Amino acid sequence: MMDPHDLNRRTVLRAALAAGCMMCLPAVGHAQSGKVSKAQAKYQDKPKGNQDCAKCMQFVAADSSCKVVEGKVSPQGWCQLWAAKQG
Ligand code: SF4
């Protein structure tokens, strides 16, 4: 049989988790697109060293967009979410 204290603790933990999730949404700052803004990603129109959008796995060359950052990005751009393209 379940201890009533465990039930209360679970209820409190669930409520705290739900509140925490609701509070973290604005902090993450995702737009309706599910992407982050250029400012949030610290996007710049120039490369950082040898890292640029064209070499990033998130870059979509077909329309010069990014899978995780809003708007058009330059193939020579860069942001702190840069991740090396595989292969
Ligand atoms: S460097 Fe940043 S903006 Fe450029 S493609 Fe990668 S994730 Fe997108």
Task: Give a verbal description of the structure.
With 87 residues, the chain is mainly alpha-helical. It has 2 domains: 1-30; 31-87, High potential iron-sulphur protein (High-Potential Iron-Sulfur Protein, Chain A), CATH 4.10.490.10. Helices cover 33% and strands 5% of the residues. The chain has 2 helices and 2 strands, in the order ααββ. The protein has helices at 4-28, 38-41; strands spanning 59-60, 65-66. A two-stranded antiparallel ribbon has the order 1-2. The N and C termini lie far apart (55 Å). It binds iron/sulfur cluster. Iron/sulfur cluster binds next to loops. Iron/sulfur cluster is lined by residues 41, 43, 53, 56, 58-59, 66, 68-69, 73, 77-79, 81-82.
The hetero molecules present are: iron/sulfur cluster
Radius of gyration: 20 Å
> Separation of termini?
55 Å
Write down the overall mean pLDDT: 79
Give the biggest beta sheet.
2 strands, antiparallel
Strand order of the largest sheet: 1-2
* Total number of domains: 2
CATH H-level name of the largest domain... which superfamily?
High potential iron-sulphur protein
Number of helices: 2
CATH topology of the largest domain: High-Potential Iron-Sulfur Protein, Chain A
- What percentage of amino acids are in beta strands? under 5%
The helix-and-strand class reads mainly alpha
CATH class of the largest domain: Few Secondary Structures
Total beta strands:
2
Question: Shape, please?
Answer: globular
Q: What is the CATH architecture assignment of the largest domain? A: Irregular
